[in-house]
Design a protein that fits this description.
mainly beta, Immunoglobulin-like, four-stranded antiparallel β-sheet, two-stranded antiparallel ribbon, 73% strand, elongated
Length: 74
């Protein structure tokens, strides 16, 4: 299963990080942790190897931070 994340247009260079956390707050996967140039990005996150459950996808770029709940049912 792939989880697609579209990042809004980044206007200036920033460090971008996208991480997946389990229900107890442990980071289970770092998808991106790099400086990105201005532009729009799309990322496919492969979550096939994870068990059913609730996960949280956290995106950080400069002052912008967001967390999205992901429910994985196999």
């Amino acid at each position: 299963m792939l989880l697609r994340k579209n990042c809004r247009k980044i206007k200036i260079s920033y460090k971008l990080s996208i991480n997946l956390y389990d229900i107890v707050g442990r980071r289970v996967k770092a998808f991106v942790d790099a400086k990105k140039e201005p532009g729009s990005y799309s990322l496919d996150c492969d979550i096939r190897n994870y068990g059913s459950g609730v996960y949280f996808l956290r995106l950080e770029s400069g002052k912008y931070k967001t967390v999205e709940k992901v429910l994985l049912i196999k």
